[in-house]
Amino acid sequence: LQISLSQLFQANQNQMVTMADDDQSECPLCMEPLDFDDLAFYPCPCEYQICRFCWTKILDEGNGLCPACRNAYNSEQPASFKPLTEEEIMKIRRTKKMKEQARKQQQKTTDNVNKRSLNEVRVVQHNLVFVIGLPARLADADVLRGAEYFGKYGRVYKIALSRPTNVGGGGSNSQASFGAYVTFYKSEDAIRALLDLRNTEIDRRMLKASLGTTKYCSSYLKGHTCPKPDCMYLHELGDPNASFTKEEMNAGKHNEFEERLVQQFLSNQKKSSANHNQKQAANAAAAASGTSSSGAGAAASGGGGGGGGGATSSKSSKKASKKAAAAAAAAAASGGSNGGEKAGKQQQQAPHPQPRH
Description:
Blueprint: H1 5-21, E1 41-42, H2 52-61, E2 80-81, H3 86-118, E3 121-135, H4 141-145, E4 156-161, E5 165-166, E6 176-184, H5 187-197, E7 201-202, E8 205-206, E9 208-214, H6 218-221, E10 243-245, H7 246-250, H8 253-302, H9 304-349
Antiparallel strand pairs: 1-2, 3-6, 3-9, 3-10, 4-6, 5-6, 7-8
Helix pairs in contact: 1-3
């Protein structure tokens, strides 16, 4: 029996609706099931049905109006009330029992169909990465959990190793290739690991990585409680968008779903980076504005002190000029014409100051 996933999940929803519709009628005010006599009780001509208890309470403690049409109730006589006979009550009970039996049979049939269909379904796990091509020296869960390997992508919940396969047909354990199911606490870490491992080579072997898929637990499909506390399989309905049949997986539908998750992750990363850069630019602008304001304030508050510093600098410059003139006169007196020529050459070699604009 073949059934599509959309039909599968729709069947579960329809089953819940059917169960709700088959329930005994309830009073819309107190939400209690209507008694047999209440089933034929209509206190208002508009035929808005409530139980006799709520009708009496509206008359004694309320405004005496029908909650639906807002017309006044007749306190002496309801609009329609005919108590059921014993035969009518027995008929209602038989009908209810037959409906209950039919509902149980329908639920059992639906469960069997659903379980047979779920047995062929695989669900992509957003936080599970499956890697193949690992060398024998890395066939250790504790090693792979370390910061040098999968631990660098994020916090690892669990690592399960698959059985080794021989590369090149040889029997040597050094040529064995292992696979690993790595479960992260966060799906973002799994996508980050997936992107990095796509182009990773270890011991001259190119690794292959993809998001892992999980099947449904056999105990769950049989309607039993799973005896394994650490069972890795599913015990409830998975995400319908991430669920694929074998035919759909052979057609690569699960790979398309994985690529959509990757593109969504990259888009979120890009937006996050842009927001971070904007915040940094805003903080830098605010810091620069604060520094400029404080510098201007310091210059303004310096005032006369800055003028005093300028006067001191002017006096020092005058003293330096006087000393230079005295040194030149002494050199001219002692060196004669040769000294004058030397001084003239030094003056010609001295660079001219550039004009300031």
